Amino acid sequence: VANKLYPLDYISQNIEQFATKMLLSVVDVQQISGGTQDSTASDETCSRINKENVQEKLPKGEESTTEGNGLSSENTIENDSQKLPRHSSTVSMAKAQRCMSLYFALCSKKHALLQQVFIIYAQAPKSVKQAVHRHIPTLVRAIGSSSSELLQIISDPPQGSESILMQVLHILTEGTTPSRDLIETVKQLYETKLKDAGILIPMLSSLSKDEVLPIFPRLVDLPLDKFQNALARILQGSVHTGPALTPAEVLIAIHGIDPEKDRIPLKKITDACSACFEQRTVFTQQVLAKVLNQLVEQTPLPLLFMRTVIQAIGAFPALVDFVMEILSRLVSKQIWKLPKLWVGFLKCAYQTKPHSFHVLLQLPAPQLENALNRHPTLRAPLASYASQPNIRSTVPRTTLVVLGLAQDNLPMTPVSSIPQPIDA
Questions:
Q1: How far apart are CA 140 and CA 168, in angstroms?
Q2: In this predicted model, what pLDDT tens digit does every residue of 222-269 receive, in sequence order?
Q3: Torsions phi, psi of 285, nearest 5?
Q4: What are phi and psi of 61, to 5 degrees?
Q5: Cα gap 381→131, rounded to integer Å
Q6: Helix axis angle, 305-315 to 339-351, nearest 10°
Q7: Inter-residue contact 372 to 381 (CB < 8 Å)
Q8: DSSP code string of 367-399
Q9: 38: left (phi over 0), alpha (psi -120 to 50) or beta
Q10: pLDDT band at 420 (very low <50, low <70, confident <90, very high)
Q11: Which pTM does this prediction carry?
Q12: Distances (CA, A) of 102 to 16, 158, 168, 305, 324
């Protein structure tokens, strides 16, 4: 019907009306159209109109051929009309597919018709939505991203049609670089109407670094499975431009997110970090060393810095010597003035003992006392380490006093009386 009869001007409108009738028969037409006409009467009217119009406009000899094509001999229309489901809640997916098949075939000839599918989708029952999703791939591949009508639909999708929109976007970008028109249409939709960064995921492999970084916090705010999908596309990039961000740039971007300023829950950010660490063939030991080396120089230090240091050494124990260098640099930055990071610093030092002993001995006496009070089991092994002649000679007397390796000639200021550091 779509290939042979629909191109004929004298019958195309009737075919389109009939296909639309079949499409609407599987959803609640009253709810969508706002009409009050009795559904049975509507079916009978549509059947009569289609029979009369088709019979009037078909030339002699074509009545029988149309029957073979499945549209509209008198008996075919009447039978199809009688088969229209009266209650959408009882429509099976298979029946919905049959009822919609002609309409979808016409969409491939007249792309603007797809708008109606988007409109009915939101209020369609589950089985009908499943049928729509079955039809969409073949249709969208046939239409292609160069269709101005399809781009118009994408630019202003009806409310509730987000699922079908996402399916269309994924199909249009499967194994190919999306057209610039499609990319700009989706970006404009995100910026003006649909504030869901998920719609940008199919486009990410074709975006530049400058385009990805501003939206990156919103991608982290997506559900974890969607963020993982977004991450894969960012790292994949296109054959022409390569990845939008390198693995190191991804981790640095995650640490650059401010939970309060960007209004993203801290757990979302930590989950994003963990998702990166799960890909050890991508986020390698060398990548993590590069990231930590850059992050430790930032002012202020990222909130999740120590958490990432601990994760890094857990994933790659061979980084322990490098991490000790990082901890030494943190001592020179007076890490104890940042209470949240100080807790992480001490946890890392505890977990990496005895490698961290020489770092702990670099702490001023009051901060060392604080560290040993928080982790009492460190005191004895640290004192034993510091008592070695070649080590003891390099340790300040005040530190030896804290460790009980020397007598204090002067009263030492109690740790409790030391002014509390201000969170930088």
A1: 7
A2: 999 999 999 999 999 876 778 999 999 999 999 999 999 999 999 999
A3: -60, -40
A4: 95, -15
A5: 69
A6: 20
A7: no
A8: HHHHHHHHSGGGHHHHHHHHTSHHHHTTS-HHH
A9: beta
A10: low
A11: 0.77
A12: 9, 22, 19, 58, 69
Are 205 and 233 spatial neighbours (Cβ–Cβ below 8 Å)? yes
Distance CA 142, CA 406 (A): 84
Burial grade of 80 (CB within 10 A; 0-12, 13-18, 19 or more): buried
pLDDT of residue 8: 67
> For residue 54, is pLDDT > 80?
no
Q: Amino acid identity, residue 235?
A: L
Task: Read off φ and ψ for residue 242, nearest 5 degrees.
Answer: 80, -175
CB 72 within 8 A of CB 2: no
Confidence label for 49 from pLDDT (cuts 50, 70 and 90) = very low
The distance of Cα 217 from the centroid of its chain, to the nearest Å, equals 11
Contacts of 215 (CB under 8 A, 6+ apart): 190, 197, 200
**pLDDT tens-digit readout, 292-341:** 999 999 999 999 999 999 999 999 999 999 999 999 999 999 999 999 99
Report the Cα 323 to chain-centroid distance in Å: 32
**Read out DSSP for 228-292?**
HHHHHHHHH-BTTTB-SS-HHHHHHHHHT--TTTTT--HHHHHHHHHHHHT-TTTS-HHHHHHHH
In which band, very low, low, confident or very high, does the pLDDT at 83 lie, cut at 50, 70 and 90? very low
The candidate with the shortest Cα–Cα distance to 104, out of 137, 68, 82, 145, is 137
Convert the pLDDT of each residue in 283-300 to its tens digit. Answer: 999 999 999 999 999 999
Token pair for 298: 């930032």
Buried b (16+ CB within 10 A) or exposed e, 156-172: ebbeebbebbbbbbebb
Distance of CA 361 to the CA centre of its chain: 45
Both structure tokens of 395: 């340790």
| Number of Cβ within a 10 Å radius of residue 376 | 8
Contacts of 50 (CB under 8 A, 6+ apart): 14, 17, 18, 21, 72, 77, 81
Per-residue CA distances from 201 to 157, 275, 323 (Å): 17, 17, 35
* Distances from the Cα of 233 to the Cα of 112, 218, 225, 244, 283, angstroms: 30, 15, 13, 9, 15
